[in-house]
Specification:
Distance between the termini: 58 Å
Shape: globular
CATH superfamily of the largest domain: 2-enoyl-CoA Hydratase, Chain A, domain 1
Oligomer: single chain
Structural class: alpha+beta
CATH topology of the largest domain: 2-enoyl-CoA Hydratase, Chain A, domain 1
CATH architecture of the largest domain: Alpha-Beta Complex
Number of domains: 2
């Protein structure tokens, strides 16, 4: 089913539903919905096409000034190109002029399946040169003929097949593999996690634990560069960084924010269930929490790499991955290496607003245990190493080299 062509009356009804959701569900307590309507109603209602209508709605939601806000139709959910192909880009001067260079390429994703690797230069998409700042145009469910130049100067023309999301409510593509582990010299384990899929994250929690145990390392580097975030499965990674049960952070929904609630007295989440049988008690416990919950680490015991750990982050590290980096930084559990993170840490929900459309809105704010908000600020690395596109093109990873130095010094 394609997105419908709506009458002006129907578009106004959708607009009304979106603004009502902003007023009653979102965490933007001081939202000026009257001002939003005054600024955008005419453009939205009189948009000449479906695409223009959706673009105008998204422009209005951007004026909220928060992440996790958007507008899409269930038949064609939209997401950022980097999420669609499980890869990120950095803009850089190359032998072909200024181009997009592949930065983070995650195993199991569409870009990796097409043979793209960090340092490859994207030359064209569907026969058209793609020159920054023009955005990468990858859409869910589409196939693209691309041309990339390898670091050795050769060019290849693979087909990049972007899968469709399984859940219409959340335009998220989960790669076939989100956790990879590599043993490096000197007893260093490299754990790379591209996202934390699943509401409770039981699968990713199990995979991360097994990967760390199998490596048997006494030094650990966790690579969260390009990690798009996800669910509470990130708690397992935080628990693997410390031996005890301690406060991680807390989230507050709209009602809790309006009431001025603090972390004290919130329902506590401190254990990822091992199987589906442990899910029902959680639903019962948190049914009335309204997204307001305190998070504690699981208390998994001492690990040989504790005290010799680094976490790699960059400007594409977002959401739940930023929660991990903030927890490690606040508790001095790891050296944070790389570039400041994206600052996109709120809980989002895609709400029905009529005619198959959904409005994605932030519905809970997240704060660290010490009360710091990451949204709009990000997490600053303790060892700042900006992305070096020229080094990537030459096959070098300066951020990883710095992380290795930090755990062996």
């Amino acid at each position: 089913m394609a997105a419908p062509t709506l009458s002006e009356r129907e578009r106004r009804a959708v607009l009304d539903a979106v603004l009502k959701a902003v007023e009653t569900k979102s965490i933007v307590l001081d939202s000026d919905t009257s001002g939003l309507r005054a600024s955008h109603e005419r453009t939205i209602v009189q948009a000449p096409s479906v695409i223009d209508f959706e673009s105008a709605m998204n422009a209005m939601l951007r004026d909220l000034g928060v992440s996790h806000a958007g507008f899409f139709h269930e038949s064609s959910p939209q997401t950022a190109g980097r999420v669609a192909i499980a890869a990120t880009f950095t803009k850089a001067p190359t032998a072909d002029g200024e181009r997009w260079v592949f930065q983070d390429v995650h195993a199991g994703g569409a870009a990796h399946a097409a043979g793209a690797r960090p340092g490859d230069v994207l030359l064209s998409v569907r026969g058209k040169e793609l020159i920054p700042p023009e955005a990468t145009p990858f859409t869910l469910g589409e196939r693209y003929e691309i041309v990339i130049r390898r670091p050795d100067g050769t060019t290849v023309s693979p087909t990049l097949a972007v899968p469709r999301p399984k859940d219409k409510r959340q335009p998220v593509v989960v790669p076939d593999q989100v956790v990879t582990a590599t043993k490096l010299p000197d007893g260093i384990g490299l754990l790379r996690v591209s996202m934390f899929p699943g509401v409770l994250g039981m699968d990713v929690a199990r995979d991360m634990t097994e990967a760390v145990d199998d490596m048997g390392c006494d030094r650990l580097i966790v690579d969260l560069r390009g990690n798009t975030g996800g669910g509470i499965g990130c708690l397992r990674l935080m628990s693997l960084l410390c031996d005890d049960r301690r406060g991680v952070g807390y989230s507050l929904g709209r009602e809790a924010l309006q009431a001025g609630r603090t972390k004290e007295g919130l329902p506590v989440f401190d254990r990822i269930p091992e199987s589906k049988w442990g899910v029902l008690p959680l639903f019962v416990r948190f049914a009335r929490a309204g997204r307001s919950v305190a998070i504690f680490s699981e208390g998994l015991g001492t690990r040989p790499y504790h005290g010799r750990t680094a976490i790699l982050v960059n400007e594409h590290t977002a959401s739940a991955a930023e929660m991990v980096a903030a927890f490690a930084s606040e508790n001095h559990l790891a050296t944070i290496v790389g570039a400041r993170t994206a600052g996109r840490v709120v809980a989002g929900s895609a709400l029905k607003v009529g005619h198959g459309y959904r409005a994605a809105l932030p519905v809970a704010v997240y704060r660290t245990w010490q009360g710091a908000e990451i949204e709009g600020r990000g997490v600053e690395p303790s060892i700042a190493v900006p992305t070096d596109a020229n080094a990537l093109v030459c096959g070098a990873d300066t951020q990883l080299s710095s992380a290795i130095w930090s755990v062996t010094r």
